[in-house]
Amino acid sequence: MSCPLRHPAHVAKAAASADVLSGGRLLLGIASGDRPDEYPALNMGFEDRGARFRDSFDYIRTMAEDYPRRDTAQGRLSDGIDMLPKPTAGRLPLLITGGSQQSPDWIAGNGDG
């Protein structure tokens, strides 16, 4: 899934639902996207996709918390709403595919595979 091209709230909700329905067997592959033509079609810049990927990654992780609170470029989570269902293991396992415009150290410290 190309994170910068989809809102992370939708990604988190859909993935958490699939995780619960599968009995906790979901491993979500995420990436920054590598097709420059897709970004202008959605009125988004291609060059800053790495920063948007990190922001989306943090947003998805935060959504698993109870009544999350966080300000991101994607929007504000103000602890007034909660996402249900919650991922089976407490957080979604995220597999970062390719480099996703991140350093190997960042990927090793944040990814789940």
Describe, in plain words, how this protein is organized in 3D.
The chain is of the alpha+beta class and 113 residues long. It has one domain. Helices cover 35% and strands 12% of the residues. The chain contains 4 helices and 4 strands, in the order H-E-H-H-E-E-E-H. The chain has helices at residues 8-21, 38-41, 49-63, 104-110; strands spanning 28-30, 69-72, 75-78, 94-96. The strands form 2 sheets. Strands 1-4 form a two-stranded parallel ribbon. A two-stranded antiparallel ribbon has the order 2-3. A hairpin with a 2-residue loop joins strand 2 (69-72) and strand 3. Helix 1 (8-21) crosses helix 3. The protein is globular and about 35 Å long. The chain starts with 7 loop residues before the first helix and ends with a helix. The model has no long low-confidence stretch (mean pLDDT 93).
